[in-house]
Amino acid sequence: MKLELRGITKRFGSLVANDHIDLTVEPGEIHALLGENGAGKSTLMNVLYGLYQADEGDILIDDVVQHFQGPGEAMAAGIGMVHQHFMLVPVFTVAENVALGHEQTTKLGALDLGRARQQVRDVAKRFGFQVDPDAKVEDLPVGVQQRVEIIKALSRDAEVLVFDEPTAVLTPQETDELMAMMRQLKAEGKGIVFITHKLREVREVADRITVVRRGKIVGTASPQSTNAELASLMVGRAVELTVQKSPAVPRTAGGLEVRGLRVRGDDGAILVDGASFDVRPGEILAIAGVQGNGQTELTEALVGLESNVDGSINLGGIELNGRSVHAILGAGVGFVPEDRKIDGLVGTMSIAENLILDRTDTGEFTSAGTLRRSQLDRFAHECIEEFDIRAQGPETRAGMLSGGNQQKVVVAREMNRDIRLLIAAQPTRGVDVGSIEFIHSRIVAARDEGLAVIVVSTELDEVVALGDRIAVMYRGKIVGIVPGDTPRETLGLMMAGAEVEEQAA
């Protein structure tokens, strides 16, 4: 089945998310749609799937114009989507999820789950993986949940499959398995749209690559293109993709010592289970793991955002556990939270105001309760220049900035304080390749200036690039701490739960 998009345009008010996009997917082809977060890739696929209606343009299947009013019509036409955020009902079984929306009944009118179970078995056998039709989805690992999404699509005779950022929650081994599955689908004549922002993966599996930037197609490329060429298309300029850093020269005293850290949720569930590690001044400890294995709770415990915390968090001889967030920041901790919009910025406030959110009581920028405007403006201009924040000026509202520039504001605020420990959680999530280059360089510079640095990331490339040592979390536990040059395959096994003894770095 041949799929063609012609001149697809989608607007949200004054924002043009898709601007006259043309795309063709041939049978038996993997066509990668490459672009940074916010480039318009997912919006385009939601138009294809009937979740959005295009303002202009046409969708054609085998040269016939289609008018999808919803996902049901798209599925009936042979289009299946494996969503980035799984569209599964957690309390339902695998078979019930596969049957949902396409329920078939027996002659007596009862739901025919037996047929759904058989569909699960048939597809699972075809691809050589184990999926229990009667298992509850909430009990399955994320990699298996993704396979359930694929089974749903294939059980409805999809001829074109859309994979929307499919590797975001997978271990390296699960990613390799997914790539093999995509190649098998291609061999069976299926057309595949592979949406991603990961250069290595797109070069590995794609037949053709279309690059989207700011809602427009800016070029096409072949899998033989270099990472630098693809990155340049994505960003619009040359980008240094390799993190440049010299070997770490850590000091032994004055760093962070965490012992027996345990975090419980409000329901009593153990979210971090006995974590112990050190971070020395002058080194980066990268914490890896699939999202949801306790990394968020660990970092929030370190800065006082978790209430049910046991164990010791000692920074240069000062015990931090039990102190307020304000006291912990005052003790020399800088914190770049994983969600900048919720925890890092006040969108309605200016860049200048966001740069001093945690410094209004120091007297540096206030006097007798009044803001020292000239001092603040001078500081803000210095930060904007030093951190290359693209904005009209310090009074620009933070919420009006791009994701990369918002993140630079957060990084600038935390690195312009007198800190001894920098904790950066998902420091480059949702930012463009150019901003990634800059933020990585600043993190390495902080290490070289003698700070102890923790980087938490679900992006294994980022972990390997930045970490002098790497700690891997699985189900709330640190399963091992290894040198930064540990092979990706070993890290992938650890991310799946394999325990490794701590090695000297």
From TrEMBL:
Pfam family, one: ABC_tran
Keyword Hydrolase listed: no
Cross-referenced Gene3D superfamilies: P-loop containing nucleotide triphosphate hydrolases
GO molecular function list: ATP binding
Keyword field contains Transport: yes
InterPro entries listed in its UniProt record: AAA+_ATPase, ABC_carbohydrate_import_ATPase, ABC_transporter-like_ATP-bd, ABC_transporter-like_CS, P-loop_NTPase
Keyword terms: ATP-binding, Nucleotide-binding, Sugar transport, Transport
Residue ranges of every copy of the ABC transporter domain listed in the record: 3-239, 256-500
Protein name per Swiss-Prot or TrEMBL: Simple sugar transport system ATP-binding protein
Organism expressing this protein natively: Microbacterium amylolyticum
Upper lineage: Bacteria, Bacillati, Actinomycetota, Actinomycetes, Micrococcales
